[in-house]
Specification:
There is one protein chain. By secondary structure, the protein is mainly α. It folds into two domains: about 1-170, Tetracycline Repressor, domain 2, CATH 1.10.357; about 170-310. It has 17 helices and no strands. Helix 11 runs antiparallel to helix 14. Belongs to the UbiA prenyltransferase family. Protoheme IX farnesyltransferase subfamily. GO terms for molecular function: protoheme IX farnesyltransferase activity.
C-alpha cells in the first residue's frame, strides 16, 4: 500500500473533533490514565491535588501523542486490517500529515509541561515512553520480529512508573514491579487477541507470533507467560504498595489466569473455529479485567493506608 493511495482517501476535509480524539486511542489512554494515577497515589509522599491531576493529564496526553504517531506511521497496514480500517486515517477523515502534527505537538507539550509541573525525572520517563512506542516499537519492532509485542509492551508499562516518579522524583522497586506487571501481562493479552483475529496480521505483513510460528506455538507462549506473570504479581503484594487486599486479589486472579492459559493451550484450531474462538475471546476480555483489578487493589491499599488499614 503506497502513501499516494492512502492520501487519496484522506483528502475529504471533513474531519470532526472526535476524529482527532480517536487519533489518541482513547481506550488505550484510559488504561494509561488509570495505571499512572495508581502509581502516583501509591507512591510515598504527596503532591498538591492540582499538581497530581495535571501530572496524570500530561501522562495521558503523552500516551495519546504516541497513539497519533503510531497511526501516522501505520496508516498503510491499518487500511488492510479489518480491526483498524475504521480509524481516522484509513477511513479518510484525517490526513497523515495532520496525525503527525498532532503527535509531535502533543509529545512536546506533555513532556515539557510534566517537567515544569512535577520534575524532570518523570518528564524524561514520559519522553522515553513516547520515543519507545513511536520509534522502537512502531517503526522497528512491529514489522520486524514476532517478539514485537514482548519488547514493545514496555511502552504501555511505563505509566505507573512515571506517576510514581512525579511524586518521588526517582525510581523504586515498587514502581519497577508495577512496570513489570503490565510488561509481562501484555504478550498473553495480545496473543489471545491474535488467535481470533485470524488473517488480519498476515494480510498486513505484521510478523505476529501466530503468523511466523503458528497458532499452536502461540498457545504455548500464552500459557508459558502466565507463570512469571503470576510470580511477579503475587510478589508485588509483599512490597510497600501491597497488603492483604492486594494479595487476595492477586492469588485469585492469577489462579484464574493460569487456568485460562491452560484452557487455551489444550484447544486446537478446528475446535476453536467451531465455537467462534469463544475461549480465546473470553480470555482476552478477562485479561483486561485482570490488569484493572490488580491496579485497583493497589489503589485500595493506598486509600486505606492513612487510616492504618492498608498494607501489612
Amino acid at each position: 500500500m503506497t502513501d499516494a493511495s492512502i492520501q487519496t482517501r484522506t483528502d475529504s476535509g471533513d474531519a470532526q473533533f472526535g476524529d482527532y480524539v480517536a487519533l489518541l486511542k482513547p481506550r488505550v489512554m484510559s488504561l494509561v490514565v488509570f495505571t499512572a494515577a495508581v502509581g502516583l497515589l501509591a507512591a510515598p509522599g504527596s503532591v498538591h491535588p492540582f499538581i497530581a491531576f495535571f501530572a496524570v493529564l500530561c501522562i495521558a496526553i503523552g500516551g495519546g501523542a504516541s497513539g497519533a504517531l503510531n497511526m501516522w506511521y501505520d496508516a498503510d497496514i491499518d487500511l488492510i486490517m479489518k480491526r483498524t480500517q475504521g480509524r481516522p486515517i484509513p477511513s479518510g477523515r484525517v490526513t497523515r500529515e495532520e496525525a503527525l502534527a498532532v503527535g509531535l505537538t502533543l509529545s512536546g507539550f506533555s513532556v515539557v509541561m510534566l517537567g515544569l509541573a512535577s520534575n524532570w525525572v518523570a518528564a524524561g520517563l514520559l519522553a522515553f515512553t513516547i520515543f519507545f512506542y513511536a520509534v522502537i516499537y512502531t517503526m522497528w519492532l512491529k514489522r520486524w520480529t514476532p517478539q514485537n509485542i514482548v519488547i514493545g509492551g514496555a511502552a504501555g508499562a511505563f505509566p505507573p512508573m512515571i506517576g510514581w516518579a512525579a511524586v518521588t522524583g526517582d525510581i523504586a522497586l515498587e514502581s519497577v514491579l508495577m512496570f513489570g506487571l503490565t510488561f509481562l501481562w501484555t504478550p498473553p493479552h495480545f496473543w489471545a487477541l491474535a488467535l481470533f483475529m485470524k488473517s488480519d496480521y498476515k494480510d498486513a505483513g505484521v510478523p505476529m507470533l501466530t503468523v511466523t510460528h503458528g497458532r499452536k506455538t502461540t498457545r504455548r507462549h500464552v500459557f508459558a507467560y502466565t507463570f512469571p506473570l503470576a510470580v511477579l504479581a503475587i510478589g508485588l503484594a509483599f512490597t510497600s504498595v501491597g497488603g492483604p487486599i492486594y494479595l487476595t486479589v492477586a492469588v485469585i486472579l492469577n489462579a484464574l489466569f493460569v487456568k485460562g492459559g491452560w484452557d487455551i493451550l489444550r484447544r486446537d484450531e478446528p475446535t476453536s473455529e467451531a465455537d467462534g474462538y469463544k475461549v480465546e475471546k473470553r480470555y482476552f476480555a478477562f485479561s483486561l479485567l485482570y490488569l484493572f483489578l490488580h491496579f485497583g487493589a493497589i489503589l485500595a491499599e493506598a486509600a486505606l493506608r492513612p487510616w492504618g488499614l492498608g498494607g501489612w
